[in-house]
């Protein structure tokens, strides 16, 4: 009597973490470039200074000049890679996440948006605007970016890295 073993493929670490993190960082930065640089005229260097300011404050980032920009780029890719790492570890624990990457990526993106907006940013040193009010447009834009440009791409990369490669029969 033949028995069959069901192999649940799991995502591989490097393709998911590095590939997913890199893709998410590039897509997120492209979105920010379109929104802030092309539509509002904010230089890309200012965007990276803002990201670096979460770690060292805006004045320190600006004083560092190009090193502040480089720190912002490093922080941006580290955050995206961290998000991909969280998804990878979650998918290893709950393999169903890679079977439905659009659904799981969307849910992951919403969770990531909430985590970044309500935990990371308030605890960081980014400049706070005391006059900032709630905006449906900002909410929609933030959710779109975290779902479509970060969560789903990371989930798709994880799914792709989990595909079982057929072995050659000798």
Kindly describe this structure.
It is a single chain. The chain has 170 residues and is mainly α. It has one domain. It is 75% helix and 0% strand. The chain is built from 7 helices and no strands. The protein is globular and about 65 Å long.
Features:
single chain, 170 residues, mainly alpha, 0% strand, globular
Summarize the structure.
Helix content is 75%, strand content 0%.
Q: Would you tell me the structural class of the helices and strands?
A: mainly alpha
Compute the CA-based radius of gyration.
19 Å
Q: Can you summarize the main beta sheet?
A: none
Low-confidence stretches: none
* Overall mean confidence score, pLDDT: 91
Measure the end-to-end span. 24 Å
Instruction: Tell me the series of helices and strands, N- to C-terminal.
Output: HHHHHHH
The helicity comes to over 70%
């Amino acid at each position: 009597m033949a028995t069959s073993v069901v192999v649940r493929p799991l995502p591989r670490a490097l393709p998911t973490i590095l590939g997913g993190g890199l893709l998410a960082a590039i897509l997120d930065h492209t979105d920010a470039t379109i929104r802030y640089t092309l539509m509002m005229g904010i230089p890309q260097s200012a965007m990276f200074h803002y990201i670096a300011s979460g770690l060292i404050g805006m004045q320190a980032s600006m004083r560092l000049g190009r090193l502040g920009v480089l720190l912002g780029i490093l922080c941006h890719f580290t955050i995206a890679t961290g998000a991909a790492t969280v998804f990878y570890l979650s998918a290893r624990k709950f393999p169903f996440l890679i079977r439905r990457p659009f659904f799981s990526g969307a849910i992951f993106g919403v969770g990531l948006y909430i985590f970044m907006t309500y935990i990371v940013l308030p605890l960081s040193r980014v400049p706070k605007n005391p006059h900032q009010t709630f905006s449906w447009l900002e909410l929609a834009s933030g959710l779109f970016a975290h779902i479509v440009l970060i969560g789903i791409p990371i989930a798709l990369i994880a799914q792709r890295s989990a595909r079982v490669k057929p072995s050659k029969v000798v």
